[in-house]
Amino acid sequence: MRWKSAAAAAVLAVATLFAGAAPAGAPATAAAQPAGKDFSKPAIVILGYGLTPQGAMRPILYTRVLTGLAVAQSYPQAPVIVTGGNARNGQTEAGAMANTLMMLGMPASRIIVEDRANSTVQNAQFSVPLAKKAGATGIILVTSSTHQGRADQNFADAGGNVLATVSFPDGDPGTNITQLVRDVMSPMT
Hints:
InterPro entries: Cell_Envelope_Assoc (IPR051599), DUF218 (IPR003848), Rossmann-like_a/b/a_fold (IPR014729)
CATH topology: Rossmann fold
Number of helices: 6
Strand content: 5-15%
Radius of gyration: 15 Å
CATH superfamily: HUPs
Number of domains: 1
Largest sheet: 5 strands, parallel
Keywords: Signal
CATH architecture: 3-Layer(aba) Sandwich
Strand order of the largest sheet: 3-2-1-4-5
Order of helices and strands: HEHEHEHEHEH
Shape: globular
Distance between the termini: 32 Å
GO cellular component, one term: plasma membrane
Protein name: DUF218 domain-containing protein
Organism: Mycolicibacterium sediminis
């Protein structure tokens, strides 16, 4: 239980770092941003994770949604793309995430549902065009630490401008620490 509290604090610290990159409602300035990274209107993309046979979210997916919500609160102008098909009991990953976000107070008008993807490659192929159509300056990915490297590469391969990735610790401590360092450094590199 202690690791969950520490992980939640780390996620909030990363979200706070992102908020410092471009304060909500304030115009972005070149001096406040790393070269090539425009956080003025990112799309926040929350990646799916397999549902239970009954169509419920597993703890890893619920944690991704909560992490995405924390990041979205730092960027009130940002659309939130939930991506994942793989329907179980009539529910898709994206549908379950959207419902949870709305239950937690996010307006439906901010949520873009991409419910066709059946893999991380498809998450990227289908979400990148949605982010561009929404006028996003780039993408902030939300996933889990053991999934981050593959997700980052798949989104780059699909033509996405990945501004940063926020990953929640879900693997061994070495992987989690490495990914936390990458999360903290990603807005600056």
